[in-house]
Amino acid sequence: MEHFADRILEAVRAKRTPLVVGLDPRLDQLPKPLFERISASSDPLSASAQAFEDFSKGVIEAIADCAAAVKPQSAFFEMLGARGVEAFEKTCDFARSRGLLVIGDVKRGDIGSTAEAYASAHLRNSEFVEMENIVAPDAITINGFAGLDGIIPFADAAQEQGKGVFVWVRASNPSAAVLQDFADAQGKRFFELLAEQVALVACEPKRIGKCGLSNVGMVVGGTAAPQARSLRQKFPQIIFLVPGYGAQGAAAADCLQFCKDNGSGALVTASRSIIYAYDNPRYKEQFGDNWEKCIEQACQDMKAELAAAWANR
Amino acid sequence: MEHFADRILEAVRAKRTPLVVGLDPRLDQLPKPLFERISASSDPLSASAQAFEDFSKGVIEAIADCAAAVKPQSAFFEMLGARGVEAFEKTCDFARSRGLLVIGDVKRGDIGSTAEAYASAHLRNSEFVEMENIVAPDAITINGFAGLDGIIPFADAAQEQGKGVFVWVRASNPSAAVLQDFADAQGKRFFELLAEQVALVACEPKRIGKCGLSNVGMVVGGTAAPQARSLRQKFPQIIFLVPGYGAQGAAAADCLQFCKDNGSGALVTASRSIIYAYDNPRYKEQFGDNWEKCIEQACQDMKAELAAAWANR
Predict the structure, then answer these.
(1) Confidence (pLDDT) at A87
(2) How many CB atoms within 10 Å of residue B244?
(3) In the A/B pair of chains, how many CB contacts fall below 8 A?
């Protein structure tokens, strides 16, 4: 399998955008026809999982031509237990069949053999290669709280499979700053130390693709704009996965600060503002009940907004 | 539902031990008869999940009388995808039917609505109460990297259901110290700051049970003995979940430093040293191929070892 960084860069170039669409299915926000099928069912759990799967497939069809990748959020699928996890797997499989790379937002993290087990679980275990019904993402997000021991098992498992890992380095929520900006006597902040630890793993020569980028990247919130420039300069081999564009309040220009001068090195994710576009009057008025069309148009608009912000940078 | 801290204290008193048995099923370490059934199956994925479930149930039967709770490790079940998650759910259900409290070791963590979704997923969502086939643990472990915004959704969801949450504060692996012992100019370390943030949530009066302990606890590695005394003194309302007893190298006396003078306030978990006791010559020679008996004896021995260490403290 080709190196993950080369694959994702190719996708960004082919689609002419760093836009990644987050798949966060919520029962109470599903398109009406999908929601009504659940109410009518005698098995609401299976019906809900089916609705999550159908919704995710609908989103994927709608955005396949104008996004570089999808980022299904495991938390929402896990709300439906094992049936939800099955829907997650089928969603990953379907996205791949439509030519989209899949970044599983699972934020797993632990130490030692448990980290290895999570890595196998979510990046596919060679032991189970023959079990074709287990479909794992092309990359996952992880939590690096345990340090190198907690990061390396994921990085190694990813590398063996031509896959990637994004370590959560800086969150964009207000309370994250209390912990993540905790500074030592020299002014170094905790997230900077964490980023350095990630880079120790990410910048090993064996992890660098032909494009010069590593298969081990970092998740840094798009609203953390002040940090963007310094992180980008300090870690030229890192791909930043930047959530928060759109509904979470990060502006296109802020997110694009994580890009290198050649436009590579950052993936900008938007979730709610695209996948629930049918609740947005702007699209509702134009396309009525055609929720897929609303999503497609919202994705094209965000792609255009990113392109305009890039041109005007 | 009674408060989680009162329930767990009752279990510790009834079983006369703070011992929690970790359920970490690994394919290559399963008892021979269970492993052979997988090799003979035409559907190795389903057979593996069934073997994990059967093994976990066997362990639960063997230790039900001499452990306060079980701690199934989600990572190992997730290796088998949706079928593994189903086995995890059935394991939780079976443990409860045998009168054991269940602490799901899931280490989930995220922000905002995603944290809420994880909390609902793993502590049961009232929306799905009628879906009786989803069985959630009595408590879960979480990752507090996102700070209060990432902790409160779990604490609130747990409280509504008479359940508990243990925030991972200090890992016992060597590389964890690089991040977790990162100190500010006053010498305060990162894990101490994190513990203070957890305590802000945990020590709210509404979260304290009749026994004086909170339903929001902390996970602190048993090999972090130097930290035990100061954490115990600083946070009298906290229950510490202490992994690492046995195979990971923590001694009984080290783990018991997290107990209060009355013996409450700590749960000591052992996994491999109990559940794979049939690979230990000490038990193999005595009980031969009877793996359940090996596990039962190992659990009784560790309970006795803890009791002796407590008496000699």
Answers:
(1) 96
(2) 24
(3) 205
C-alpha distance from A149 to closest chain B C-alpha (Å): 6
Residue A308 contacts B, CB cutoff 8 Å: no
Which residues, numbered 16 to 35 in chain B, qualify as contacts with chain A under a Cβ-Cβ cut-off of 8 Å? 24, 26-27
pLDDT surpassing 90 at residue B258:
yes
Question: What digits encode the pLDDT tens for the residues B197-210?
Answer: 999 999 999 999 99
Q: Is B149 close to A114, i.e. CB distance below 8 A? A: no
- CA A178 vs. chain centroid, Å, equals 24
Question: Mean of the per-residue pLDDT values for chain B?
Answer: 93
Q: Homologous superfamily of B4-311 in CATH?
A: Aldolase class I (3.20.20.70)
Neighbours of A262 (CB within 10 A): 9
Interface touch A173/B125, C-beta < 8 Å: no
Phi, psi of B218 (to 5 degrees): -130, 145
How does pLDDT run across B89-125, given as a tens digit for each residue?
999 999 999 999 999 999 999 999 999 999 999 997 5
Chain B residues within an 8 Å CB radius of A131 = 44-45
Show contacts of A221-225: CB within 8 Å, 24+ apart: A221/A170, A221/A171, A221/A172, A221/A173, A221/A176, A221/A248, A221/A250, A222/A172, A222/A248, A222/A250, A222/A251, A222/A254, A222/A255, A222/A268, A223/A172, A223/A248, A223/A249, A223/A250, A223/A254, A224/A170, A224/A172, A225/A250, A225/A254, A225/A257
The Cα of B14 is separated from the nearest Cα of chain A by a number of Å equal to 31
Binary contact (B147, A176; C-beta < 8 A): yes
Give the Cα separation of B226 and B222 in Å (integer). Answer: 10
* CA nearest to B184 within chain A: A184
Residues 6 or more apart whose Cβ sits within 8 Å of residue A223: A172, A244, A248, A249, A250, A254
Find the catalytic residue in B15, B71, B90, B107: B107
pLDDT band at residue B126 under the 50/70/90 scheme: very low
Q: What is the dihedral angle through the alpha carbons of B140, B143, B146, B149, rounded to the nearest 10 degrees? A: 10
Residue B129 has pLDDT above 60, yes or no: no
A176–B120 CB contact, under 8 Å? no
Contact (Cβ atoms closer than 8 angstroms) between residue A151 and residue A197:
yes
Cα–Cα distance, A72 to A285 (Å, whole number): 28
Q: Tell me whether B287 touches chain A (CB under 8 Å).
A: no
CA–CA dist B194, B170 (Å, integer): 9
pLDDT tens digits for range A183-239: 999 999 999 999 999 999 999 999 999 999 999 999 998 777 778 889 999 999 999
Please give the backbone phi and psi of residue A131, each rounded to the nearest 5 degrees, phi first.
-85, 85
Residue A126, pLDDT above cutoff 50: no
Partners of A244 on chain B (C-beta within 8 Å) are none
Check CB contact under 8 Å for A45 and B134.
yes
Out of B107, B147, B175, closest to residue A178 by CB: B147
Q: How confident is the model at residue A150 (pLDDT cuts 50, 70, 90)?
A: very high
B182 and A190 within 8 Å at the Cβ level: the answer is yes
Kindly list the domain boundaries of chain B, sorted by start residue.
Answer: 4-311
